[in-house]
Design a protein that fits this description.
Distance between the termini: 40 Å
Radius of gyration: 21 Å
Helix content: 25-40%
Order of helices and strands: HEHEHEHEEH
Strand content: 5-15%
Structural class: alpha/beta
CATH class: Alpha Beta
Length: about 160
């Protein structure tokens, strides 16, 4: 079979033929390459951090795990993420104080935030809960967590 070189074909056909050339990446765009989404997870429990990393890593997400709100805030001052998943009761800076600080950062003002806590949402002043996208109560099963994350991070 004779293949015509891209230079001998009319322009539209030449562009189509390059799509099949594995060495030509000029056609690579948003539909062919997707950015891996990053979840920042703040929890003082190492076992919870490992479990969440396993659950969300299995979805193809990059999980950055930190042990408290201070570390999460420091990360967000230098980097970006697509979702913040935080516990409430942590040393140094608790989850609601972290949320308030995050909302003061212009780059993260609208960052989706999921709370993963043993506390019910009704246990907190509603004004302090403003800006929370969703609330999951521990213990939570993996499918419920993944369902919330898919809801908050559409493809």
């Amino acid at each position: 079979m004779n293949w015509a070189s891209p230079q001998t074909l009319p322009a539209p056909a030449a562009r189509r033929s390059r799509l099949n050339d594995p060495h030509d990446l000029s056609h690579a765009g948003a539909k062919t390459m997707t950015k891996t989404k990053t979840v920042l997870h703040a929890d003082d429990s190492g076992s919870v951090r490992r479990w969440v990393a396993e659950q969300l890593g299995g979805m193809g997400l990059k999980v950055v795990s930190v042990a408290d709100g201070d570390a999460a805030l420091q990360y967000l001052q230098d980097s970006t993420c697509d979702l913040l998943l935080t516990d409430l009761e942590m040393p140094n800076l608790d989850g609601l104080a972290l949320l308030a600080a995050v909302r003061e950062l212009p780059a993260h003002r609208f960052l989706p935030v999921l709370v993963l806590s043993s506390k019910q949402p009704g246990e907190f002043d509603p004004r302090r809960r403003q800006g929370v996208t969703g609330w999951l109560v521990k213990p939570v099963d993996g499918e419920h967590l993944r369902r919330w994350v898919r809801r908050v991070l559409p493809e």
